[in-house]
Structure prediction request, 628 residues.
Amino acid sequence: MNILETHHITKYFLEPVKFQVLKDISFSVQKGEFLSMIGKSGSGKSTLLYVLSTMDTDYEGKLTIDGEMVTGKSLDDLAILRNHKIGFVFQFHYLLPEFSCLKNVMIPALKLGKYSQKEIEEQAYQRLDTLGLRDQALKPASKLSGGQQQRVAIARALINNPLIIMCDEPTGNLDSKNSAIVFEIFKELTSSLGQTIIAVTHDEDFARNSDRIIEMRDGVL
Amino acid sequence: MNINNDIGTTYLITNKKMTLVAILGITLGMSIYIFMNCMVVGFDKTSNDSIFKNTAHIRVFRDDVVSRPLAPDITKKAVIINPKVVPASNTIINPDEVVSLAKKHPDVVNVTPQVTTTMFYNIGKTQVPGIATGILPNEADQMFNIRSTIVEGSFEKLQSNLNAIAIGSGVAEKLSLAIDDNINISSPKGVSKNMKIVAIFKTNNSIVDKSKSYINLSTAQQLLRENNTYVTDINVNVKDPENCDQISKDLKVLTGYSSESWKQANETMVAGFRMRRIVITFISYTILIVAGFGIYNILNMTVSQKINDISILKAIGFRGKDVVRIFLTQAMSIGLMGVVSGCILAVILITLLKKVYIGGDIGYFPIDYELTKFLQGIGVGLIISFFAGYLPARKAAQVDPVSIFRR
Ligand SMILES: Nc1ncnc2c1ncn2[C@@H]1O[C@H](COP(=O)(O)OP(=O)(O)OP(=O)(O)O)[C@@H](O)[C@H]1O
Ligand SMILES: [Mg+2]
Prediction:
């Protein structure tokens, strides 16, 4: 079953000069697949990921997620959809600095409002535990190192058990040991929980060990 | 707690200094707004009180009539006319009927007849002109609160003694009169009477104090050689003096006589009050709006600072209205805390000023805790906080996360 499909997605940047970043991109991702996207810097990986994440709505073509047509939905509906179905790990911007790590992880679940505060807290602790951050849980996020922050962001992306987790360089700031941990977690999620992962990466090993690799080259797959 | 409010509150707490400054702004604006508006109420009350000591809310009287030509149609023929005031007396022909008619009006609380006449106070060969007001002492006291102006003697004695008179303090001084002295008064109709002074009043309006005196209605009628139905004015007090113009019109229609409200009778003064009210209202609103700008500024700053957070929240699945709520929570919390402390400060200011002695017929500074003004202030303060927060919040809601992530 295809959890995500794109049909002829094309995107232009008009400033400073008209420039086509994404050129007629059509592909599909299966449920439970662990997909890596590689490509040179500036080839349009992040741009595509923003389109797939439903945050960028300024494109041509069609996008469906979980069998649902996403293109053309209202911003509010898209926000709800993201909250329910998509977890996102950003390339540079990670956490809300004034909140504790625990709170950062909890926020998407609190927004979703499916579980009680207590249950959410427990789940959040569990996630932080697997990522080796239990002892950092109550520190404010701004007091953590870059790698630690990135792991908290991953824990946050996982908290709502999203159908799709999208990551932009999830291991960019991590040492090989922690990269391996993150990779294992992702692998586990796809195989046992049937979650889908789309990860942009520069990490050769990471990409090689995933289910499928797609390469982006100047806006074409 | 809702997660939106939770996040908003956290921002408030982590930004203590800015929050405090904004609260302080609202506190000051709020307290001054309430304080000034309570002051206006106090001013209006004292001014009105001093007016209502001499003037009824509405006066029903018979106006002079100008003569009209007897010719039925003066447009067709050449008619020489010479209009003049008809030399009829100003009496209200059926005072009892007018009184009972006026009393039937739902807004009327008090009705009392009155006869006013010019006269002279005579001491030896000295004649001092003055005005005698014939009243039914108890009814008139209810209306004008004459008792509160009595400085010597007792007003009660006027009721029991038809030859008693209550004179103004200025008259007493000019003629060196004291309580229990006798004085001869004479009317324009040539009637003169020996009266006994039972009370001296002081209204702090020196023209009144130097000329006016109160006597019994029937004595005044005798002075004018009139019978006991002769009445020049019928004074009417109503529930809400601010509302007197409409009732005045009603009474005019109801009784067929002319009527004049205190506002018409004191037009210049009333215009002055209105001006005072407008100026103070304007200033107090301005101060409150400036305080609102404080909230607006601080929230605008917060939104710019937190633009990253906002983008992340939107990526996580917060809708535009969730973001609006986060920032409105902050604005309304600031507003609420400012309003509460503003009310407290206003109470303190009013309490202090109430104790300041001004002197004259005002006495202590005329200000009081006006509940309506407090409520009004709270309402306006919260509305201003809402809008001061809503504008930056809407800006935050419109943040495009992708454009922030790309930076
Ligand atoms: N706001 C923008 N306006 C115009 N051009 C842009 C804008 N954002 C990105 N680009 C251009 O779009 C292209 C793709 O950018 P994108 O960020 O998707 O690259 P990327 O593949 O993620 O690179 P990296 O591996 O360095 O993260 C680049 O050439 C970039 O210069
Ligand atoms: Mg990128």
In short: The radius of gyration of chain A is 17 Å. The longest strand of chain A covers residues 2-13. The helical segments of chain A are 45-52, 75-85, 101-112, 117-130, 146-158, 176-193, 204-208. Residues A 13, 15, 19, 21, 39, 41-47; B 406 surround adenosine-5'-triphosphate (ligand 1) (CB under 6 Å).
